[in-house]
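User: I'm designing a mutation panel for DUF2993 domain-containing protein and want to avoid disrupting the core. Could you give me a predicted structure to guide residue selection? Please restate the sequence first so the numbering is unambiguous.

Assistant: Good idea. Sequence first, for numbering, then the predicted structure tokens:
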Amino acid sequence: MRSIVLTLAFVGLASPALATTCEESFQKKGDFFNGSAFAARVQVEGGTVEKVFSQLRPILARDGIKTLSTDVSTGVLKAENPATLLQRALPIDVYATVDGTLLNVEMVFTLPSGVGARRETVREHLCSALNQLLPKETAVVPVKDDATTIEVDAATLAKQVKESADNPARLKVNFTGKTFRVNGKVLSIAENAGSYMVSFDSGQPASGNTSTDKTNRVTVLCTMAKNQDAAVAALQTNQRATLVGRFQGFDSKVNAIQLQDCVGR
């Protein structure tokens, strides 16, 4: 009975905000003599109870855990660490609750009195399973400023790209995926979706019609890579600067050249 009480103590645990990681959310209640329970949680963006439980079954199975039952309507999955010659089966319960666009998934491992386990070992097993429910981040290949980098000023790059814009194959062959070291006057510095976007002046309009100079001018946009705060802080508008970035594409609708993962030089 003591173990059941400990398990239930975690469910619906009031908290102003979940910990950032599974490892930070890890908790233990009880002790060796009265029984103990370990719990860890993650938040899954846009997840559903049915999908999470279907993912968990093979994840637990690979760790030797047997799923006993799942109830999507109540958000409860019951499993157990199978019994051995020296130890009876130990329960593992998973609780999934919807919170707006997030799905809170909590896993609780309960031990009866007289049975102990290392805190670090339990945390490793619980979070190993729960972290597999989270989307994997796509690794960003850092831009390398080496011999393959093409040095060019913003005006020249804008002119070359605009001349090739009507031929997608030419853009692909000559620009897409290539690394450019671009020098030019900084027009603006803005923050967008957690990244910095630096705009270079191309120096000349895309059209010879001066009345449409502003709307037709090609802009070189550098989206800065992560951890470039210091490099961006050193930039000043209306001053020349050099950035190295990978050519992502050309947006003909707004006449913008898009360079990604830019770094300061």
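For picking mutation sites, this is relevant: The chain has eight helices and twelve strands. The helical segments are 2-10, 22-25, 49-62, 119-130, 154-164, 168-174, 213-216, 229-233.
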